[in-house]
Design a protein that fits this description.
alpha/beta, Rossmann fold, seven-stranded mixed sheet, 10 helices, 12 strands, 23% strand
């Protein structure tokens, strides 16, 4: 009896702005790797980390074509990184990455929760004192990232991050007019992502009504601005450029793409890249 055929892995479909994000990652990964690979005194060991790596490929909603995902973009970057770590909670996606990079010993694929794997296995390999540096992509699909990861990256002084701030997930599941109706698990996810319950002060402002004071939701820009300050003042990243709003086909902001780094030159490079794409549209 023939062995059952494996079910083909279905690729995630991504929209126009997600493709722009991949272009941003491609540009900065090249600039970052070029700068660090050229440093000689001391020589630096530079690492690329993708915490929600996926299968290494996507299908474009715009064209229907299969396009490279962030792991493949990073793995093909020239000059190459010294080391790569790709993490995904989906075992089938992790297996595909292992198969794709089976002949690349510098590439490590991890299956599991990135919140644990980053803190226990990956970040300890990127110590500042050992002349190691890291570029880390934190691109969760929703509120699936813990603040401890962000803060640890800042404290290490050796890691730069790109961060997906999933404001649509927050608006859809947490930032309701009557917060007492929000599911407890969603409140916990929000607090874990933000790091404490100060998100409530960012998301709501008291207003006076005919029936007395009530909390009214603030706008996305206010929440994004507050989180930017949190990355600087609470996490401890020295340089956090203005984030880039990433939109869906109707123009609504789906998430903000943040960059945070201990280095001013890194922030300047990313600001230039963000400004290049900030006002693009699908018809540009």
């Amino acid at each position: 009896m023939p062995a059952p055929r494996k079910k083909a892995l279905k690729l995630d479909e991504i929209g126009y702005w997600s493709e722009i994000k991949l272009d941003i990652i491609r540009e900065y990964a090249h600039a970052y790797s070029k700068i660090l690979a050229n440093q000689r005194a001391p020589r630096l060991h530079h690492v690329y980390i993708d915490a929600f790596a996926g299968a290494g490929a996507h299908r474009s909603k715009t064209t229907g074509e299969v396009i490279e995902g962030s792991p493949v973009i990073a793995a093909n970057t020239q000059p190459p990184f010294s080391e790569y770590h790709f993490i995904d909670l989906d075992g089938s996606k992790a297996s595909k990455l292992r198969a794709d990079f089976v002949n690349r010993p510098e590439i490590h694929v991890h299956h599991g929760d990135c919140n644990r794997i980053l803190l226990e296995k990956v970040f300890p390999r990127i110590l500042f004192e050992e002349y190691r540096r890291g570029l880390c992509l934190l691109d969760p699909y929703g509120l699936h990232l813990n603040w401890e990861v962000i803060q640890k990256a800042a404290q290490m002084r050796s890691i730069e991050i790109f961060l997906n701030f999933p404001v649509m997930d927050m608006n859809r599941n947490v930032f309701w007019r009557h917060t007492e109706k929000v599911r407890e698990q969603d409140l916990k996810r929000m607090t874990a992502f933000w790091g404490d319950e100060s998100w409530r002060q960012a998301a709501y402002a008291p207003v006076q009504t005919l029936y007395g004071p009530e909390d009214e939701k603030t706008d996305n820009e206010t929440i994004a601005r507050t989180f930017r300050e949190r990355l600087r003042k609470t996490a401890g990243f020295a340089h956090v450029p203005e984030p880039m709003p990433m939109r869906n086909s109707t123009g609504a902001v789906v998430y903000y793409l943040y960059f945070a780094s201990p280095k001013p030159v890194a922030a300047r490079i990313v600001t230039d890249i963000f400004n290049k794409y900030r006002n693009w549209s699908a018809t540009s």
